[in-house]
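To assess whether ligand presence alters the predicted conformation, the chain was also submitted together with 6-O-phosphono-alpha-D-fructofuranose. Input:
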Amino acid sequence: MPSTSRVSLTRFLIEQQREKGHINGDLRLLIEVVARACKRISIAVGKGALGNMLGSAGTENVQGEVQKKLDVVSNEILLEANEWGGHLAALASEEMDDPHPIPHRYPKGEYLLVFDPLDGSSNIDVNISVGTIFSVLRCPEGVKEPGEAAFLQPGTKQVAAGYAVYGSSTVLVLTLGDGVHTFTLDREQGSFILTGSNVTIPEDTSEFAINMSNIRHWEAPMKRYIDELLAGRTGPRGRDFNMRWVASMVADVHRILTRGGIFIYPRDLKDPSKPGKLRLMYEANPMAMIVEQAGGAATTGLERILDILPQQLHQRVPVFLGSKNEVERVTAYHRESGA
Ligand code: P6P
């Protein structure tokens, strides 16, 4: 691609600020800082066994999940990158029980950043794609020392959302509320280069993503929907469907953003105390904003994910997202059943 047609992330953000007024200087700095942190994470992930970063850190996070060494390192990279810039009022992460305040020696800004520093990390040791997911909110007016309550805003309040997928290439996917744009990391130059503008998800699909091993724990409308897909052309859907499950949300969502599909992690009765596995603030909400901005849909099976008023920083929700017509169908099944 001739260099004149290459638009870097920096140039894209400056043009969004200058021509569309979508962002201000602080938000532009925030996105650039997060992107730089994702580059560092990409390098660490890419070293694999040579980086002495594989395997467990020997600790557990607030979710009670064993942390991988790269979970901890990725979290530290994002904290260190974002503390000093003066663009944030506080940060929160899947890997930390409570929000991380900006040290008093640094100025505070108007934004809150919440992230999953390395989603899908159980796949690291087997060299399957993982990623970083992030969501940006405004700090409520007048809140000088934002705690958990400051983060508990519905997904509709997000001013930006994105993820980086560390796969065969490293791709940053970003929405500022005006479409979804993708940037591929040029490893020689160390720059993210615009490789997709206003990406859209096909409204229909014949590909679904779900962990089928949980089938015996699903509620009736979930079983009905999947049974119809498995019946293929012999059943009510009249066509065959394909299944994919990477067990790395970023990888599954990126495939759906690229060619359509539906991603499902439903509430299941395996642990009735949990309304789902995925976390609202730093998995479901940012992915829901991206998917909706790309013309898709994202629900809990009963309600729009972005409308949920969070009760806790690490709360979990059921997730149905992707091609609009499939999400609407499975959501209708749940609503009809009164699940
Ligand atoms: P399961 C990764 O741990 C994650 O949070 C998502 O990235 C992924 O979609 C899901 O969990 C996989 O869950 O139960 O299939 O291992």
